[in-house]
Automatic annotation (TrEMBL):
PANTHER family given in the database record: INTERFERON-RELATED DEVELOPMENTAL REGULATOR (PTHR12354), INTERFERON-RELATED DEVELOPMENTAL REGULATOR 2 (PTHR12354:SF8)
Family, per entry: Belongs to the IFRD family.
Entries under InterPro entries matching the protein: ARM-like, ARM-type_fold, IFRD, Interferon-rel_develop_reg_N
Protein name in UniProt: IFRD2 regulator
All copies of domain Interferon-related developmental regulator N-terminal, residue ranges: 6-142
Gene behind this protein: Ifrd2
Annotated region (Disordered), positions in chain: 1-23
Pfam families per UniProt: IFRD (PF05004)
Gene3D superfamilies referenced in this protein's UniProt entry, alphabetically: Leucine-rich Repeat Variant (1.25.10.10)
């Protein structure tokens, strides 16, 4: 009895986590920079505290598109958070074709922010970390 109740509680917790993640992903497209930053912080916390690869597998391209918008249009803190979330997404996707696909789509933008002298130091540092980690984890091309 208690094992079944425990399992049921875990399923409810997983659903709650997934609902919060979906909400954070929706909020990445908000007009308000504060709302986008809060969503990025929520995603960062979730991706760094549990394995969510199954949930992310079918949503990776949507999330990558949203992160791309945050990196392109955001400033400073938003870009830094987007770089961190991208790093965590690559870690969650791993070295398979899915991780490589996410990395390949965002690599030019990471390089662009990294080499942009007008971008904030924290954004550039975050993009440099994302580029290095994602390259290490997901780049199929050895160069």
């Amino acid at each position: 009895g208690s094992e079944a109740a425990s399992e049921h509680g875990q399923e409810e917790e997983e659903e709650e986590v997934e609902d919060r993640l979906k909400e954070h992903m929706d909020n990445l497209l908000d007009k308000s920079a504060k709302a986008r930053q809060a969503a990025l912080q929520g995603l960062r916390l979730a991706l760094s505290s549990r394995t969510l690869s199954e949930f992310l597998l079918e949503r990776r391209l949507t999330l990558a598109d949203s992160l791309e918008k945050c990196l392109k249009k955001g400033k400073g803190e938003e870009q830094a958070l987007a770089g961190t979330v991208l790093t965590l997404l690559c870690l969650q996707m791993g070295s398979g074709p899915e991780g490589e696909e996410v990395f390949r789509s965002l690599k030019p933008l990471l390089v662009s922010v990294l080499t942009d002298s007008t971008a904030s130091p924290s954004a550039r540092q975050s993009c440099a970390t994302a580029l290095g980690m994602c390259c290490y984890i997901a780049a199929a091309d050895l160069e």
